[in-house]
Amino acid sequence: MNRSIMKNKQKKYIRSLCVALFWICVWQICYWVVGHEVLVASPFDVGKTLWKNAGEAWFWQVIFHSLLRIVKGYLFGIAIGAVAGVLATKYYILYELLYPMMSIVKASPVASFILLTLVWMKTDSIPSFISFLMVMPIMFTNVMEGLKRVDTDLLEVAQVYRWSLWKKICFIYCPQLWPYMAAAATMSLGLAWKAGVATEVIASPSFSIGHKLRDSKIYMETAELFAWTAVVIILSMLLEKGLAILLRRIQSTSRRKIR
Amino acid sequence: MNRSIMKNKQKKYIRSLCVALFWICVWQICYWVVGHEVLVASPFDVGKTLWKNAGEAWFWQVIFHSLLRIVKGYLFGIAIGAVAGVLATKYYILYELLYPMMSIVKASPVASFILLTLVWMKTDSIPSFISFLMVMPIMFTNVMEGLKRVDTDLLEVAQVYRWSLWKKICFIYCPQLWPYMAAAATMSLGLAWKAGVATEVIASPSFSIGHKLRDSKIYMETAELFAWTAVVIILSMLLEKGLAILLRRIQSTSRRKIR
Amino acid sequence: GCQPSKVEDTAMENVGKAKVSMAVIKGPTGMGAAYLMEQNAQGLSKNDYTVTVAASPDEVAAKVINKEVDIAMLPTNLAAVLYQKTQGSIEVAAVNTLGVLYLLEKGDSIHSLADLSGKTVSMAGQGAVPQYVFQYLLDKNQVTDVTIQYMTEHAEVATALATGQADIVVLPEPNMSGVLMSDTSARVALDFNQLWAETVGEESSLPMGCVVVQKDFLENNKEAFELFLEEYENSVLFAKEEPEQTAQLIQKHEILPKAEIALKAFPNCNIVYMDGILMKETLEPFYELLWNANPKAVGETMPDESFYYEK
Amino acid sequence: MISLERITKSYEKELYKDFSYTFPTEGIICLFAPSGYGKTTLFRLMLGLDKPETGRVIGMDKLRTSVVFQEDRLLPWLSGKENLLAVNQDETLCEELIEEFGLQEDILKYPDQMSGGIRRQVSILRALLYDGDVFFLDEPFQAIDIVKREEIISILKKRLRGKLTFFITHHLDEVYAFADCMLILQGTPLQVKQTIYREDFCSIECLYEKINRYSPYCDL
Amino acid sequence: MISLERITKSYEKELYKDFSYTFPTEGIICLFAPSGYGKTTLFRLMLGLDKPETGRVIGMDKLRTSVVFQEDRLLPWLSGKENLLAVNQDETLCEELIEEFGLQEDILKYPDQMSGGIRRQVSILRALLYDGDVFFLDEPFQAIDIVKREEIISILKKRLRGKLTFFITHHLDEVYAFADCMLILQGTPLQVKQTIYREDFCSIECLYEKINRYSPYCDL
Ligand SMILES: Nc1ncnc2c1ncn2[C@@H]1O[C@H](COP(=O)(O)OP(=O)(O)OP(=O)(O)O)[C@@H](O)[C@H]1O
Ligand SMILES: Nc1ncnc2c1ncn2[C@@H]1O[C@H](COP(=O)(O)OP(=O)(O)OP(=O)(O)O)[C@@H](O)[C@H]1O
Ligand SMILES: [Mg+2]
Ligand SMILES: [Mg+2]
Q: Disulfide check for A131: which of A76, A196, A221, B6 has CB 3.0–4.6 Å away?
């Protein structure tokens, strides 16, 4: 049993490796086809740059600070979006008030109120704020959708057996909201990350991936640019993986099967 | 009956008006609090600017071109995301290949490969492309999630009664995927719109809202900036409303209750 | 210190010094202030400065509007716009950067504006200073048959040059250094600063960056501001005399990411210190040019007398 | 005392119109009516899950209710045991009941792993464990085999003694074995046509005959 | 001819072990076993919805199957009529059957607006409309009232003549009224303990006695 699991894991790693290799090949071919180092850096150069950077302390500091900023905004977005979704479902008047606000948040281009945010916030917190704005409406929509589809049959069970609100939340609402919230959390993680980094490019706080991207773009250091892009992508994948594991763990410890 | 419906509709309009008034009041208060015309324009000034602009032909041309660009990207994103989601669920190997690509698409900052896209594409099509990139992974995730949760009991019914694939799609898959796809479509509309306009700000094709936003920002014409932002928001809301009506119509003509 | 907008600490020996807050933009306009910032950091300056190194003009503009900073270094056109938008609550005290625009080519065919005739030039900045200046220079020199291909970003122009999609481009610092560092076949063909002098008059130069000050601040702290100007002029002089050392300081204070880049870009950035009548005479024709091209570029009206600071 | 006062309720057709009835305070009352005539609807009205158009239900306010729904309605993400404990934390009573039902093994499964009959038994267990003042059993013995059914009936009879229980079924043998009193309802709107008490049941055959005599379904 | 060859299937406990049986080619065969012993599982194996661990099911490949699942499994987003037509476009047969069942009104509703008994009848209708070669009826008469049940049994008997039907129930009166042959299964793993043919049914009482005599549940 144990051995077969190990073998399975090995197999999975090998497959992941193959996939990674496949995409790196695609990249290399792109490089050959384009034929300009300034446009597309070769995987090899990018690897070298990454390796060089990884040896330096500031590299990790930059990553750490960017991560911190964006994850902060993300978590706030998740929390506030969920709460807003619940309240808007419960109180119709709040829905009427919040819905246009969410549309505004979703639709208004950052460029429009960057001056405003610059006045009110430190450059450090703008990326957090933007990733917050990215995540919140997604969570809001999905929580509302999930609540709309909660099984009324089971709510009737709770009613006749006089369950407390708390019990209803634990046993009926949470398990049914879970997939919607999980989907929203997974989906918005990458977006928040991307939007956060994009804002860092504009607002450029000093220890930030966005700042590095900006500099390497201005000075046409394509290998550097691709290396930082790779960092962004790898981090995003790691975050997503981490989130998936976290979600799975939460789900399996609390309850087994959630439809 | 008919009269009461009309009364109901009137009531709804009045309520929407109240909500709009509420948010305009909030805005006006913001304006007073901030106290700098350059930072926050007054609703009155913005209204005036809008009114002035609306009288001119180019205003509508700009809107039309931006709309066209972004909606094009959005529709492609919807279609390709859905197809990719279906295929990735069906063929595991495709999932393995597509999943990292989706992560990359979701996470890689536009700034990193805007240079690439600028070389390969006309400025005109970049906003389409970016809103496409915004929508596709959302649709992909939601379709995969929806397919994972298709009721196997009903699939067994289809199996014993030997339904064709087509029938299965019409009667079992579509109705159950519908809410997931509708949520993804609604959710991503605003985001695509915002990302599209943001890209227009950078890539500035000549007839574009983004171009106007950029100009008014460079010249610090706050009223103009807010007016164009308002245009973006109003259009986004109209699009969302339109989408909601469309979705409801499709749903009601085809089937009544979709859980 | 990992604050994004770097606030230099001024720990010691500050008794009796006036507190002054100042904003600098990363890039050429900030380079002249490097030595001052260093002095300030060591407590050797005559005022007690709190310096913000901002990433974008937007950020500085926001701080000026909000009166968070007393002194700011800005692009000249933005200074004029802000003057109008704040109902004249700022003054311009000095020009600190001259023309940073250059015409680059691959090859060796352009030696004067006239050589551009019949060629295609790629550039960014449509509807902004680069376009207006370039157009003005072309018009004044009666070069009419130049095709200008506008691109969206300076970085795109640089890429186009590097990949051979464009042969002749107009680029500002610091993008130009980027090109020159990665592509040895590119050559600086024309210096807009020089062209300007040739076209407008020997004494004139093309002002791109300036120092502005809040009027409110001036009312109460005239001496402190005079001290600042003195110190700043020194700082600029130091930069011109000791480029290597300044480059190190520029890196240290994060005005540019690397000392080598700073050193390379240094001669092209035309850092100066110019105040009083000379400043006014430099700025006015420039604003007039912009105003003629597009009144919005200077905030709809030409700045009046009270815009110019007098000692 | 629970009573219905001039209740009206309709979906398309009128199920109840000015329907009034006063139920006894204890005993197992079987509601016997054709499919789709409104038995479940009556339960829902009494439980407050539906509102009547006019009229009201009296005497239900302060009563705790134990319900076996027509469908099982177990929470699919909880195991059988967890489903029970969600309703009443009393572990000892729970264990005792599980043992009485002989479900020690199956109770640990999740609803989608149980057979139909076991799911049904867990529903009944849930109602018993909650131990309400009034029981509503909507076809509780569906899918339960004959031997098990007899056992469960005797457990229920013991545990429901002295309480009021409403019971819906379509099987006369279940009525005969379980009910104290049988309300035969018929017609649209539904009306009580006949009340038969336990002492008049005699035997299943005679019950069958009695019902045929009053031909409750002749107006179908 | 359908037969099972040395079938093994287990969930936790072993439901079938080396189970072999050959069914007759026509007639209504009732499977009678306690709850949770594997009747539904056997249906699933025969229908190919589940795979046996070893052994195989022979003779099902080319047969069309009509199934009434233990749960209704109607598509909730289609009305009753649409649910029927999804299985067979034959409008006239559909109308005819609906009329025979007397469901003209209720068939237009959506499943969540139907009563339990009506949903069940629609399931049966669906199976009849598809008109497979083999019928699998898993407790088809749940929640259907006695009069309706008799009517439906006679319709089914008429329409299933000459076909093979598998039928699961826990009610002897249904066996007596409907089945041609009764397989009594018991034990874990499940085994056929007794086969009773229609000619030996005599009467319900005597059927009940026969079953008691063989006490199929004594090993519970
Ligand atoms: N939500 C609803 N919408 C429309 N009609 C409904 C709804 N609920 C119930 N009905 C109708 O009300 C009638 C009575 O339904 P009810 O479930 O009470 O029947 P029942 O007596 O419990 O039948 P059964 O024995 O089949 O369970 C049915 O004809 C049904 O179609
Ligand atoms: N997916 C599953 N996972 C685990 N156990 C299962 C699963 N499906 C069925 N079982 C077990 O197999 C046994 C037989 O189930 P089955 O549904 O065949 O019973 P049945 O004879 O149809 O009973 P009933 O008369 O109650 O419907 C049960 O004990 C059940 O717990
Ligand atoms: Mg019912
Ligand atoms: Mg079963």
A: A196
